[in-house]
Fold ATP-dependent RNA helicase DHX30-like.
Amino acid sequence: MQQFSENLCEAGLLEGSAEGLRLSSRLNLHSHQEQLVKAMLIAGLYPHLIQVKRGTVTKRFRPENLSYRTESSPVLLHRSSVNRGNPDLSSRWLTFFSAVKSSGQAFIRDSSVVHPLALLLLTDCDLSERGQALNLSTSAHLVK
């Protein structure tokens, strides 16, 4: 907590020094800026990143279904997750705190939608330009 407070002070997101801020209400100065809070989540939780893709293939293609994948494997959103069943996510990227394996499947319970720009600016993802398209890739080439 102390190191994170120091980093926020150095970045100018908190006024004053990190000393004595632990119980201060000034820590909530930017709490109303949802995208900034989510950007801090991706910065702190990276590489816990999920790519959301529309369209799944089981016995037949289902374009309305969403699939979720981390760098290493497909995952499912737990039924208690607020993002499960939400077809209108504002981004195709989620960050999460932990995954739990059960019956051979990895389940994500706590996820947050993150803006792709925060992902680009606050992680070590690579960016390449192809015409008017930008491709974002991680060390495991999550997106090509």
